[in-house]
Amino acid sequence: MSPTFRIAYRFLTAKKRAMLMSLSCIVLGVGLFIVTQATTSGFEDFFIKTILGTNGAIRIEDRFQDTIRTMESAGGGSGSTFQIEQKEGRKYIEGVEEPKLLIEALHEFRNVAGLSEVVTGSAILRSSFKGDSVKIYGIILDNHLMVSELGKQIIRGRIDDFRINPAGALIGKVIADRLQLGVGDSFILESAGQSRRYKVSAIYETGVSDIDKERVYLQLPEARSQLKRTTGASFIQVNLYDNTRANEDAAQMEEVLRHGAKSWQVREKTWLEVFRTLRISSGITVSVFTLIAGLAMFNTLAMIVMEKTKEIAILRSMGYTREDISNIFVWQATIVLMIGTVLGWILGASVTYAVSHTPTHIRGIFSTDTYVVQWSIWHYVAATITAVIMVMVASLIPARRAARLEPGDIIRGTAQ
Hints:
The protein has 15 helices and 13 strands. It is α+β, with helices and mostly antiparallel strands and 416 residues long.
């Protein structure tokens, strides 16, 4: 143990109450920073998993053509013209005309983990209770299970019943509740000028209200017949091995396939911005505790400098350099910071664990009955860095002031 550390510890114990205030603020700042980041990041990750489990990482839809603009050449009155390709202006052709060919091409992308051809269309669902507007999703079940979590979202019935029953249907929990439908019940779908009867094979719940209240899944051949769409597809849903690369893959797919490709980051940009803003704002809010700790540390060390001027003069006379005197006060801040950070880690981990078991009921953008948290070492790193910056910066000013004191000035009473 170095002499400067021992002296710092002695000075520190002389101001126990003030140091305990700084310590408590550091503990609260670090602990609450970890908790808020764990909860906001947890809900964001859960939202992303829900979106990927319902709408996939990428959607390939409408074919496009770059528009060609005719311009008159400058010079003379010859009236000659030339054409330029205007990529900013695109002509979109709704839907996917050749889904089989597109699927074959998509399989050439290394990051593609699964593909599902989907046909959609509007319809009216009528039960014995009442009718409501819905949207038909025609799928090949095994393919769609590779690009979604539909199999895990079944809450009533069996998905195998849908697999073996051509007239079977999967409906959302909101639809089932509103129209009082249960597994095995029949209903009528009206679309494209025709009506057909189907049977509820199973009921699913994604937690996304816009999905659970409108999507009715049918077998792809049955959906084509119901919607009178014998060819083509509405879109192709793509699942990726690495979902973080969705933006890059979507751009490459657009360039190669000449079809619109929307990644999950683009589709859900608004909600992702909301979660990011919440994470930043909550981090800034709880950092106030760490700021208070820094101010308290500044005040405490400044008072110690004023009260220990004689001791500082003695130390300088004994041969301690300005750097040694500065280190004494930096050590005091470091000791409090280290203890506070460790206790803050323990507080953050304990509260995060308790929060993760706290019941709640959230429906709308995802479905969960408990708080969702994310356990990440980076939350602890970020909390520590924040505390170190605020506390150590606050301690440097009184440390530098103490280092500038001269023994002669102290004896004459002219030290400032």
